[in-house]
Amino acid sequence: MNIDLIHRLTSTPGIAGCEDQVRDIVAAELKPLVDELRVDRLGNLIATKRGTAPDGPTILVVAHLDEIGFLVRFVDDRGFVRLQPLGSFDPRALLHQRVVVHTQGGERFVGVIATTAEPHHFAPPREARIPQLGDLFVDLSGYGEEFKDHVEIGDMVTLEGPLHIAGDHLISRALDDRLGLYVMIEAIRQLGTHAAKIVAVASAQEEVGSRGAVVAGYDLEPDICIALDLTIANDFPGMSPEQEVTRLGAGPAIKVMDTAQISHRGIVRHLRDLAQEHDIPVQLEVLNRAGTDASLIQRTRAGVAVVTISLPARYIHTVNEMAHLRDV
Predict the structure, then answer these.
(1) What is the DSSP string of 40-71?
(2) Residue 250: pLDDT over 90
(3) pTM of this prediction?
């Protein structure tokens, strides 16, 4: 595995609307592998590899560029920053985590997320209030007057958590969906001769409603779409087997459905048959929440046959997302 590429993808900041640095990495990897490379107005990277059949189907493979993060919403004179979330968060997982504020000029200010809610050590356990996103702020006060000349409303804020290999597990920020991008790049790299036209899309703004995917779906009008994304692995203490959804190390998951998408049953069957033929362990996924880019592409124009291939991950949408090398 190209761990260096995974490291570059996960360490590069890119929230919804600010994906350019991540897009540049993906573009550099895909450029020598495809026939055409372009960026649309919304920031999707579109890489086309033509097939041998002029009238063959178009297969769209999509993985999203953006990670969950924040924009600076307000800055006071003491160096405390209020946040506008771009993506879904559990506030409990954010308390006292380190973040980086990225300025328009390229400066990086490291801060700590804290809450206006009364700290637990000042209140009895039963009275301590669970913080809400609106209670959170970033403490940059250590920079004194320096931050005032640089940090402004609209600056990108990302979680700070470098990639770590823990045995056969990956732990990092932004595995969602930089691992999907990695798989997409490596799949295109290994392609042989094929009849269909294959279009790899690194999509923008998935975490705020798959906005890039909608644009790409209308633009490309594919026959089939395969999304590559992470899914929940609740295989840890306190969860019953029916709550696990997937397990780490048991193979990638073929999504049967989530709350936004019902996968094309013929494609699900086809992928299962391929996995069996090549002795690839796979799981079947039914997720009772969330969705992927495939759900929006499915509903473009006259409709698209879609499926999502998911990477099981623990602690999704935190600074310490965890995946298994074997599944990747």
Answers:
(1) -TT--EEEEE--S-TTPPEEEEEEE--BSEEE
(2) yes
(3) 0.94
